[in-house]
UniProtKB/TrEMBL annotation:
Location relative to the cell: Cytoplasm
Source species taxonomy: Eukaryota, Metazoa, Chordata, Craniata, Vertebrata
Name this protein carries in UniProt: Inactive ubiquitin thioesterase FAM105A
Entry's Gene Ontology cellular component terms: cytoplasm
InterPro entries in the record: FAM105, OTULINL
Domain of life of the organism encoding this protein: Eukaryota
Classification via PANTHER family: INACTIVE UBIQUITIN THIOESTERASE OTULINL (PTHR33662:SF1), OTU DEUBIQUITINASE WITH LINEAR LINKAGE-SPECIFICITY A-RELATED (PTHR33662)
């Protein structure tokens, strides 16, 4: 009986093991299949994410109006090949910057008629330079309203926003949006202390063409507003005005604020860039010393010029590099 019971038990255990073994094999096969599927899915998603990241990166680089830094001498060799007199002159100028001024890299700026405004604002934002002192004392959002209503400048309706033609009654509302964009972004970026984070914010901002143009139009309007105030002071013989305004208003093409707007400001961003008088005015209003290396003037006293030529010691300094006084790059020391 004991032997019979032992044999029966062994047979039962064998049958149970066979069933369990089958289930285990099926379970293992299922787990292997799931693992293989998950691995393939992970690989597929990783490749998809990589492609999407590369696409976004290419798109960002393509839209970025201020490119990443490149080697100065490498850029010079690519741009000025050959043995013409001009090519040799430019290569020598770049070598002078490299060896004597310790400029090792440059950032290329999109070549359009906002170029100089873009190069200046990008450096102000990327360096975290705060609002100029006079902007801290006024609400710049109210400047369009003050110019239109308090000072009766109805001709502001003829203001042009770069490539966009006259907006008529809509000019006032659009100017206010431009001022809001400038104030919001300047405040946010200058308050960011981390250099890398601030750089990422600048890259995002300067890859958005619509926001960029609003920044530049806001700066143009601030220039106009200050010219109006200086003109009123001069006309009413109040406190003396800065010689920059005297120089600007002495020109036949900008003898008053309206002619300054119609003959100069309206075309900036569309068909012309800032000239040297306006670049000095820009530096004065933003309270920055703009140092420009003019490569076409290499070996002359005008090779390195400051705008404005008179500035305060506490002002921050930014640098520009130009080959033709029209398009500007950003030198990096």
């Amino acid at each position: 009986d004991v032997q019979s019971w032992t044999t029966a038990t062994k047979q039962s255990l064998c049958l149970m093991w066979q069933k369990v073994k089958v289930h285990l094999m099926l379970s293992m096969t299922f787990l292997v299949a799931v693992f293989w599927y998950c691995r393939r899915l992970y690989s597929f998603l990783a490749q998809l994410l990589k492609r999407w990241s590369n696409y976004l990166q290419r798109k960002l680089i393509r839209n970025l109006s201020v490119r990443t830094e490149v080697d100065l001498l490498g850029y010079s060799a690519r741009e000025w090949k050959g043995e013409t007199k001009q090519a040799k002159h430019m290569r020598e100028a770049y070598e002078e910057l490299f060896w004597s001024y310790h400029i090792k890299y440059l950032r290329q700026v999109r070549r359009d008629n906002y170029c100089v405004l873009r190069a200046v604002l990008f450096q102000i934002f990327s360096q975290g330079i705060p609002f100029p002192s006079w902007m801290k004392e006024r609400d710049i959002l109210k400047l369009p309203e003050k110019l239109l209503y308090s000072q009766g400048c109805n001709w502001i309706q003829q203001y042009s926003f770069g490539p966009e033609r006259y907006m008529g009654p809509n000019a006032f509302g659009k100017l206010r949006k431009c001022m809001e964009t400038l104030k919001t972004n300047w405040t946010e970026i200058s308050a960011t202390k981390d250099h890398e984070e601030r750089g990422n914010m600048c890259n995002t901002l300067f890859s958005d063409e619509s926001k960029e143009h609003k920044l530049y139009e806001a700066i143009k309007f601030i220039m106009l507003y200050e010219v109006v105030e200086a003109y009123e002071q001069m006309k009413n013989r109040e406190e003396p005005i800065h010689n920059l305004f005297s120089l600007l208003l002495a020109r036949d093409s900008s003898s008053d604020p309206l002619s300054f707007m119609m003959n100069h400001l309206n075309s900036i961003g569309d068909s012309i860039c800032l000239d040297q008088v306006e670049l000095s005015l820009l530096g004065y209003l933003l309270e920055v010393k703009i140092r420009v290396y003019r490569l076409q003037r290499f070996n002359t006293e005008d090779f390195q010029v400051n705008y404005p030529d008179e500035y305060r010691r506490e002002w921050n300094e930014i640098s520009l590099l130009t080959e033709d006084d029209r398009y500007y790059q950003i030198p990096l020391f």
